[in-house]
Amino acid sequence: MDLGDDCRLHVYDRVADADRLTVFWHHGTPNIGTPPAPLFPASDRLGIRWVSYDRPGYGGSTPVPGRNVSSAAEYVRRVADALGIDRFAVMGHSGGGSHALACAALLPDRVLAAVSVSGIAPYGAEDLDWFAGMSTSGEASLRAAVAGRAAKERHEATAEYDPEMFAPVDHAAFTGEWSWFDSVVGPALENGPGGLIDDDLAYVAPWGCDPAQVTAPVLLMHGGQDRVVPSSHGEWLARHCPRAELRRYPEDGHISVLHSATDALEWLGVNATS
Fold first, then answer.
1. Cis peptide before 206 (omega within 30 of 0)
2. Among residues 82, 111, 132, which one has the least CA distance to residue 24?
3. Pick from 74, 63, 39: which is nearest to 197 by CA?
4. Which pLDDT belongs to residue 88?
5. CA angle, 113 as apex, 24 and 262 as ends, to 5°?
6. Which domain does 170 fall in, by range?
7. Which CATH number belongs to the domain containing residue 148 in this structure?
8. Are 165 and 138 in contact (CB under 8 A)?
9. What's residue 60's pLDDT?
C-alpha cells in the first residue's frame, strides 16, 4: 500500500469476506505482521477475517523513524478505508498490545473491541514500577532506548539473544504450535534491527494517547511468569481502561499465554458484535 512520500506499508488480508468480523492483528517486537497461523482454525470456525501489516521498518514496510505508538491508528485507518472496512476489532501481542489499544483510543467510532495479550503499559506511569520483573537483558535493552536512539543503536550492535528472558513454559510453547514465531522473527531482522529500535524507542516515549480514552470493551490477558512484559503491566492497564476485563494466567509466560488466545477470539465474537 502506497502511503505517499515514498512510504510503503506491507498489508496482509486473510479471508477477504465482508460477512466476517475483521480483526486487525498487531505484532510484537521484533516480528513481521503475518497474522497468527495457530489461531486460523478457531478464527475460521468463528468467522473472523484477519487484516494486519508490517509496522514501518519491518518486512515490506518502509521505515518511519520517530513513529510513536499512536501512529498505528492512522495506518489502520488507511488500510481499513482502502479495503472498505467500516468497523473492526483489534488484537495485539506483547508490544502489539499497546498499538491495538492506541487504535481503540483514537478510532472510537470504528473499533468495536480490543484484545491485548502480554501487553506493555505506558512508560513513566506514576503508579507502576515499569521495569520491575523484567529479565536483565530486557531491562537493559529498554533502558538503552530511554537513553536515546544513539544509545539504543550501540546496544543493538552488540546485543545477543538471551534465552533467560523467557520462562520455561515459553520455551515449551516455542516447540509446539507457537514455533510459528520462527516464521515472523527471522524475517523481521533480515535487514537489521531498525524496526526493533524504532519499536523500543516508541515504547519508552509518550504513546500519543491515553488508555483511559478507550471506550470499547477491552480484554487483557497476562501470564504470571512473564519476564518480557511483567504481569504488573496488565494490571495497570486493567485499572486504567474503563471497560477492561483482566484474565490472569499464573502459570503462563509471555508466549505460553497464547495457548488461551482462542478464548480471546470467542470473547471478540461476543463483545465485537453485541
1. no
2. 111
3. 63
4. 98
5. 70
6. 2-271
7. 3.40.50.1820
8. yes
9. 96
Q: What is the pLDDT of residues 31-51, one digit of tens each?
A: 999 999 999 999 999 999 999
Kindly report the pTM of this predicted structure: 0.97
pLDDT for position 274: 62
Q: Give dist(CA 24, CA 130) in Å, integer.
A: 27
Q: How many domains are there within the chain?
A: 1
Paired with 114 in beta bridges are 90, 218
Task: Please report how many Cα atoms fall inside a 13 Å half-sphere around the Cα of residue 104, on the Cβ side.
Answer: 34
Report the residue count for the chain.
Answer: 274
Tell me how far the alpha carbon of residue 209 is from its chain's centroid: 16
Strands (E), the chain: 2-4, 7-8, 11-14, 21-26, 48-53, 88-93, 111-117, 218-223, 244-249
* Cβ(229)–Cβ(119) below 8 Å: yes
- Percentage of the chain exceeding pLDDT 70: 100
List the one residue out of 245, 239, 237 whose CA is nearest residue 264.
245
| Residue owning grid cell 470473547 | 267
Judge whether 262 and 39 are in contact, CB under 8 Å: yes
| Mean pLDDT of the chain, nearest integer | 97
Side-chain-side CA neighbours of 236 within 13 Å: the count stands at 22
Strand, helix or coil for residue 219: strand
Concatenated DSSP letters of 154-207:
HHHHH----GGGS-HHHHHHHTTGGGGGHHHHHHHHTT-SHHHHHHHHHHTS--
User: pLDDT-derived band of residue 15, with 50, 70 and 90 as boundaries?
Assistant: confident
